[in-house]
Here is the input.
Amino acid sequence: MKENRSKNIRSEFQVTYEYDVFFTKELFSLENILLSEFFQSKKTDKMKKKVLVVIDQGLFNFHNKILESIPQYFQSNVESVQLIEDLIILPGGETSKNDSNGWELVVSAINQYGIDRHSYLMVIGGGAILDMVGYAAAVAHRGIRLIRIPTTVLSQNDSGVGVKNSINYFGKKNFLGTFAPPVAVFNDSSFLVSLEDRDWRSGMAEAVKVSLIKNKVFFEWMESHVSELTHRDLTTMEHLVYECARLHMEHIQNGDPFEFGSSRPLDFGHWFAHKLEYLANFSIRHGEAVAIGMALDSIYSYLSGFLQESELNRILNLLRDLGFQFNHPVLLKNGKENLELALKEFQEHLGGKLTLLMLEGIGFPKEVYTIHLSLLESAYDRLVGWK
Amino acid sequence: MKENRSKNIRSEFQVTYEYDVFFTKELFSLENILLSEFFQSKKTDKMKKKVLVVIDQGLFNFHNKILESIPQYFQSNVESVQLIEDLIILPGGETSKNDSNGWELVVSAINQYGIDRHSYLMVIGGGAILDMVGYAAAVAHRGIRLIRIPTTVLSQNDSGVGVKNSINYFGKKNFLGTFAPPVAVFNDSSFLVSLEDRDWRSGMAEAVKVSLIKNKVFFEWMESHVSELTHRDLTTMEHLVYECARLHMEHIQNGDPFEFGSSRPLDFGHWFAHKLEYLANFSIRHGEAVAIGMALDSIYSYLSGFLQESELNRILNLLRDLGFQFNHPVLLKNGKENLELALKEFQEHLGGKLTLLMLEGIGFPKEVYTIHLSLLESAYDRLVGWK
Here is the structure.
């Protein structure tokens, strides 16, 4: 007789996470006491915790003074923690995630300097190095305290304020990683001034994304501020970053923060963007790829009868007016024949059934579980031919 | 003027975890439908998830039939998931955690077989391989579903039912790892029958530990069942495992599951045990080291005036009657001069201030924040001289 002969004990518990994302200017200026107040607020006993700092090499073209201003800041303003004097400088960009060398170096430094679970790892740079260092922080001693200081539009309004970290492995994007919230994020807009135009622009793709799936008012605000945004008005960009970060964080908090389910609304436009980045060997920026991915999915939504043509045009126009292009060489070369593979890889990464977001309107997403390949190919042809 | 010129957005959310620990016999017997019912209960859509199985090589001395019974079981009883036919066999024991080779192999298999976030990694073996495979499951795709099937007393009543995983790195125990609850644990008592005497005994140390810090009734139950336990009565051992696992899980659930604070009550006796294992080059079992660590801390508690002599004697007698010895060669050789270093390393691993548990009575722990080295050395001398 078949039977279930067993007893069981159920474990059920909740873990509470909280962190602040601060918006400031000149974080390491001696006049700015935000960071010192933060460390003071975290102090629970008389022991001085350590702070190990990792800096994205890419910053040094414009911000090489940071090597002096950080030690000066800690010496003058911060009594409650001890800065590790050896600031670690590592190359950033997607290639920093492509093998485990950078990760290994950070983990070694954590060991070498005796950084414990209640000490801090502070990383300053773009989204890729934030991801890589975040992964090191998440697994060393089963998790040490991570402070992110994102320096690009993309990392300040999107990846840097969220709960994920990762490196690429086996040639697959984000194959290794965890969900591990930081203890704080400091968004310093003075880093944005020196960004290359491509990076300034690229980061806005995630703002368009979050407006498309969450908030039409924000979409319309971008439509009416295209000129300020493309002419690099910093105050306007600060608002874009704040609003995008706010919507992003609101989504994480009210949704499924650690993605136990299959749905991934924040990945709108991303299934194809991930593949494009690989096909272009990362010569395309993440935001540029996301803009193409969103344009493709918006056209698909229109061809499927979900989205009105007038709204499709507004979406494509905003992306174009912000400076995004839909005729990247890799699209013309071999993008189309990789559509099916890209869907398959995205499904595997999601786990479980394919769940994609399409649009019923600006600010109104729609989940779909099947994709008609012929329709997708038509959308693709329209995309590359779009003027 | 110094000022805090910033605004901020706070993110605050809770993540809910739940899992069952099942107690059964002959899990892969065709008559036992527990496992097939489990997979059926987890099914949420029509897709068949995959199950990748990793087995501890150490099992094969006595359980080599498992290579046939697992495929048979899945073929006959399990419709809702797809077994990956290639069962992965890896060496277990602490050495499997000492480098990243085993971990790398498991992560490669996850990639090779396309195991996604909603598929399963099932690991069968002792606590060390559970830790190592658990760490691979926790970081691949940012976390795939882990099923643990612990096969030793120690892993069934302690490590295997908890929320941690790890590997050793830089020669430091558990340097890399995460907090990541499994989706289920299946404790099959039939694996215990074939354990070596040392392993049967060693696992009981954690039961003594949890009774000392949580539950005097359980301590007294062990005192009155020493004979059955040492003569390997399986029903008595099943009760010990169940009760120890229950108290362990209750503690995790009601405490600080991911150890954000500094207190680590479940580590009673462990600060010195960890060091002993290294000093003995893992020729000592974890439980044997924990028994010595608990004896040392109990004597220290007595010498500090916290614990009555009569209760100290009951503790040391129970440990001795269960077969633990306090005269391990490594203790006589260089244990004493490593006491201070062991405290320092434990503090670093804890993070923050030193927080140790001592005893005020059986079932009544007391947190202490400083250790008097001379008193500790006296306790040590008593320990190694104890008859």
